[in-house]
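Student:
Attend to each token:
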Amino acid sequence: MHENFFHKLKVYYEDTDSGGVVYYANYLKFLERARTEALYSIGYSNKKVKDNFDALIIVKSCNIEYKKSAHLEDELTIRSFVKSITKTSFFMNQIITRDEDTIVEAQVHLVFVDQKGKPVKIPDEIYSKFKPFFCDTIKT
């Protein structure tokens, strides 16, 4: 069984429209924050990845399904886990919930690239620290 990364956040006024409903594009920001915190939790940051491995982690694609709306001052939880991995990229599933309600489900394809945008192998150090968060699906 794989492990999950969990990130909690509160919806602020700046995240909502005039009716107090979270603006749809802000869910992408919430997902990015959760991925950044997942990286921090294994001892890395985007800056460390760049400085130590001369690589960047970029979003190649994102499939997002909006199930319900979040509102001003809601407390949300984002659960993230690695669904599958290749030598240069991985798919991360992320689910935003409010209590028992699923708000958003997303699958994000993330790729390690060099400074010119060319895919590079995921560093072994990072791969091994992410390994407990992988599902059983590993692709070559």
The beta strands are 5-10, 56-66, 75-85, 89-98, 101-113, 134-138. Residues 5-138 form a domain with the Thiol Ester Dehydrase; Chain A fold (CATH 3.10.129.10). The first strand starts at residue 5 and ends at 10. The chain has three helices and six strands.
